[in-house]
Amino acid sequence: MISHNTLYGLANALGILAMFTVIGYHFVAVNAKYLGEEKRVNQVCRALLGRAER
Asked: In the chain, how many H helices and how many E strands?
């Protein structure tokens, strides 16, 4: 059988993991537009540098 202390520690660890997951999801959801724009800018810069090197 699982002890009360082990169950307590497991519940706390899973609760903390759930909260970090929610916070991470919201961070990505809110900043998805900006992260997408930054990715496009990086692709354009790489394309321009690739053409200049040739």
From this structure: 1, 0
The first and second tokens of residue 15, run together, are 């609760």
Which residues, including other chains, have CB under 8 Å from residue 9's CB and lie 6 or more apart?
Answer: none
Q: How far apart are CA 52 and CA 25, in angstroms?
A: 39
Question: What would the pLDDT profile of 1-48 be if each residue is shown by its tens digit?
Answer: 999 999 999 999 999 999 999 999 998 888 777 766 766 667 767 777
User: Rounded distance, CA 19 to CA 47, Å?
Assistant: 39
- Sorted by where each begins, the domain ranges of the chain are 20-54
